[in-house]
Amino acid sequence: MRRDPKLADDGATLDALVRDSDAFPPGAVRVEARMLAADAFVGRLHRHADGLALYDRVVSDPKADALTSRLAARQIVETLLGDGRLDEARARANALAPHLDAAFVKHVGHLARRRVLVTASEIEIGVVVLLVAAAIALAGRRGRTHAVGAAMRRATPLVLAFTVYVGVMGGVLAAKYETGNAKPFLVFGAALFPLLVAARAWAAAGSPSPAARIGRALACAAGAVGAAFIVLAYLDPLYLDGYGL
After folding, report:
1. Roughly how many angstroms between the first and final C-alpha of the chain, as a whole number?
2. What DSSP string describes 172-227?
3. Which among 21, 164, 171, 199 has the fewest CB atoms less than 10 Å away?
4. Cα pseudo-dihedral 54, 70, 30, 61, rounded to 10
5. Among candidates 196, 191, 186, which has minimal Cα distance to 220?
6. H or E segment to which residue 115 belongs
7. Are residues 95 and 124 in the same domain?
8. Averaged pLDDT, groups of 10, the chain, 245 residues long
């Protein structure tokens, strides 16, 4: 099968090899046969469930050498990661920790936490948008739509200048480093613009009381942080790795 690519890509032949391997005596040949089939199932045939089951059998096989067991364990976790099953990947990484590098197990934990933080950031931005919309609608019922619109128009040039400055200057600074990437800063500047315009509209439409102003400021600041986190998570997660995220 190793010498014939057609056989190595044929599902029926691989299934027969797996069945036959159950009758092989314990040892390297049985381990190699299962690894060959598992790699084909996961990589070329997209039969991930079958491949994961075989990798599990390799890891638990006392006759598998340490290197092969480590490879099978890593393939299990990486397959789950590739399928977007982050919680399962983290659980399996922790369970298979004796067969995996500690740095890899830690990285999988970071990925799972990052997914939670991205979801939380999306929810935070959504809440801010809903609160802004509610405040504007309430201002409209009170006949203050013109005042809100005027406040937004006055703020737009300054907000535009600020977001361009943030994006361009951040990008320039990042580009000065060999591994730096300017794109996240440029995208963040673009994402920050509507958030700041919305914040100004909220300020104009909302209550002028100190408590309300503080609440709006905290909510908008959290939204800006959430936007930055989402941009980095999707465009350049290496920045987040440096902070354990």
Report:
1. 43
2. HHHHTSTT--SHHHHHHHHHHHHHHHHHHHHHHHS--SHHHHHHHHHHHHHHHHHH
3. 164
4. -80
5. 196
6. helix 102-141
7. no
8. 79 88 90 91 90 93 91 94 89 92 88 86 90 86 82 87 84 70 81 88 84 89 88 76 64
Listed residues 100, 116, 133: the one ending a domain: 100
Judge if pTM exceeds 0.70: no
| Residue carrying the six token digits 């590098």 | 101
Last residue of a domain, one of 82, 100, 118: 100
Q: Structure tokens of 66? A: 């340490």
Helix/strand/coil for 84: coil
Residues in the chain: 245
Query: Which candidate, 120, 118, 128, places its Cα nearest to that of 197?
Result: 128
Q: Which domain, by its residues, includes 13?
A: 5-100
Residues 176 and 143 in one domain: yes
**Number of domains present in the structure of the chain:** 2
